[in-house]
Amino acid sequence: MEHRDKQEKQQIEEYKKNPTINMADSMNRSVSGDLGTLTRGSILTRIITTLVIIGGLIVFLLLK
């Protein structure tokens, strides 16, 4: 947890130094998504996320 907090603080400092990085990072995340945010939250959120991902893979494989 401390490592993640340290990374977030470093990222905030980078955004302050160069504000255009924030826009570029936001655009990249909107295209590829931030998988780290899917694992944050309660256990119920994690279970639902896992079920959705597994369900999506099963549907993808069955339609192929």
UniProtKB/TrEMBL annotation:
InterPro entries per the UniProt record, alphabetical: DUF6366
Pfam families: DUF6366 (PF19893)
Biased composition annotated in UniProt, kind: Polar residues: 19-28
Highest taxon listed in the record's lineage: Bacteria
Transmembrane segment boundaries: 43-63
Keyword tags: Membrane, Transmembrane, Transmembrane helix
Basic and acidic residues: bias regions: 1-17
Annotated segments matching region Disordered: 1-28
Protein name: Phage capsid protein
Source organism of this protein record: Paenibacillus motobuensis
